Amino acid sequence: MKRKLIAAIGVAAMTATVAACGSGDDGGSGGSSDSITVWLMDGSAPEPWVEELSAAFEAEHDVEVNVEIQQWDGIQDRVITALSEDGTVDVLEIGNTHTVGYANTGGLADLADFADEPWNAPMLESTRVDDTLYAVPWYGANRVVIYDKGIWEEAGAEVPTTRDEWITALETIQENTDAEPIYLPGQSYYVMGGFVADAGGTFAVEEGDGWAGSLATPEGQAGMEFYAELQAFSNAPTDIDEAEPQQSTDVVPNGNVASWIGLGWEAAGAIAAIEEQGGEADFGYFPVPGETADQLGHVFLGGSNLAVSGRAGNSELANEWLRMATSQEWAQKFVDANNGGVVPNRTDVTASPEPGSFAEAMVASADVGYLPPLTTGWANVETLPNPIKELMTQALNGDDYQSAAEEADAEITERINRE
Amino acid sequence: MTVHIEEAPAPPPPVRGAGGQDGDRRPPRRRVPSGLVPYLLLAPAVIAILAVLGYALARNVLISFQEFGRKQLISRTTEWTGIENYRAVLENERFWDSVFRTFVFMAVNVVLIMVLGTLLGLLLNALGKKMRLVLAISLVAAWAMPVIATTTVFRWLFDTQFGVANWLMRTLGFEGYDQHNWFGSGFSTLAIVTVLIVWTSVPFVAINLYAGLTTVSGEIWEAARMDGASAARIFWSILLPIMRPFFMITTFLEIIWVFKAFAQIYAMNGGGPNRESETLPVMAYVEGMGQNQYGMAAAISVLTLVILLVAMSFYFRLILKQEKENS
């Protein structure tokens, strides 16, 4: 009967496997002296600009530039892994709401040499910790409402300048066409944050030494209520966000969406996808309306910064690349390559959007942008499961807002004060 | 993982003293090699386990006593905090919710798996050749399906907008299944995971039981029937005692497998909505990999291990007791 004992030991061994929960490490390709690795995010840089820049840099320094395009989904894990390894990546693009958090971990190189360039002042806010520069601004972007001109014309809806007109337009579309008046998934929390900001609220406020979630407030509730009013016009489920399925390429091209709220690269992606199907996109753009005609709605000031890894294999070359990519010449080329669809990172770069373009609508509301709290802990709040998203789903499904928001606030407070 | 099933009744022990008369004959079993050889043969397996599992386990225990987040990971610092992580976990209401949920989930799954698996095993034994083959193939197919593939298919089956489940409910005439969200609550999510896990685990039990049953001598069945025993009586009074070791080992293997089920639950809904379908392994993952609190996650997984070991100690005792009786 020794075999039973062996079986028992086997069981014990398998019990032990429960506790072993590991993570895979990706091999890096940077680190050698004749090449540098640059991580850019999906949808950030137009390909021709990247190719031209790489060619110019390679010609000047006789090194190879490996530009690797990263997906936003799961990016935090990959950046953390990359920053903890030697020579994985030299230069990397980091979302503006996450930069301070990474700077605080000590994983980003000090970029004091770049401090004197004429950076766009509001953007600079997200790149510094205690006056030390850990990243440089690259571009800014914010969302606008993208609408299908054909459907709006057919319905007889007019481009709104206030919230009330917006709702009226959506009602008109619902009555007169069989299109979905607006595609708005339940968890697009940066859109909701704009409505909260319209009411004078924010995701979190400073309280004593730390921060505290502030969604269980009349302002938070007002923002969520307007979001719910819009969301009622959409067939989208309440428990998904705009990225999965990707609204621009997976939802909008498949048809009958009269309008949606998106970024410049999303609009471009949707147009490309529609053309690939043999159709023709006829998009118009307008800024998110505010409560009155003289004030536009608040929009999240998205954007990215460029940073150098503290463990870059070749930090000298990394700095050189960064200097070139963000120089006046190449920053201007970047803005031009985006057809003016981004907010420039430097004051000596100008964007001249064409009339009727995405960029025109975007630049209009850039002044009424809002940012989430730029604290080291904000990135913790945005990790999944994101308490703001959970709150939105609960509210849209008819749960009591106040109690759900208090729960979300508690979670935000716990996470935002963690380093 | 292979399992030894000792379904056959033990052969009658050789009569003592009888061997002495045939002293010159070859012994019935070859002699076990002595000296270093057995240890050398065991070494690769032991070394592999120590290197892969032992190291990870030891490291995991160490991390559980550290403040270990992305800051420590990136700056490569070590901050010992003693039992701070354990205190935080044990004071966390969410942890106890997870413990309760894990045990209920495990109990429901194991009972369903064992009952359905036993019934299907008996059915396999009772079927004719052709139908047995058909059933065996469909069981093996379910058993062989990759976890993420089956989970993805289940996700689609229960999709809110285009799922077959909603269509079926509508077709059957139920109200309110136009856009029913099957993943709208933790209970409903775990119920779907239960269907998935039971479906993929039943074949293991059924096929092993069938394999065991084939070694039960036909005479025993016949004798029981002659005495007028009903099918239920045959099962409870004859099969169950003969197959007792099989049922014990299988039940406990299933307990462990369900207890540590991670991929199915995580891939189904990420532990959501609102963390309502988190079992202990999923919670450890969400806290650790999702939120970069590696120290906290390590503490959760060590506690999970301790809980499982305590639960399993019952089994060890049972086995040791039997060992004593048999020696």
From TrEMBL, chain A:
InterPro entries reported in the protein's UniProt record: SBP
One Pfam family named in its UniProt record: SBP_bac_1
UniProt entry tagged with the keyword Transport: yes
Signal peptide: 1-20
Coiled coil feature spans: none
Record-stated family: Belongs to the bacterial solute-binding protein 1 family.
Name of protein: Extracellular solute-binding protein
UniProtKB/TrEMBL annotation, chain B:
PROSITE patterns: ABC_TM1 (PS50928)
Region of interest (Disordered), residue spans: 1-28
Matching CDD domains: TM_PBP2
Subcellular location: Cell membrane
Superkingdom of origin: Bacteria
Pfam families: BPD_transp_1 (PF00528)
Transmembrane segments: 36-58, 103-126, 133-158, 190-213, 234-259, 294-316
Cross-referenced InterPro entries: MetI-like, MetI-like_sf, UgpAE/MalFG_permease
Protein name: Sugar ABC transporter permease
Classification of source organism: Bacteria, Bacillati, Actinomycetota, Actinomycetes, Kitasatosporales
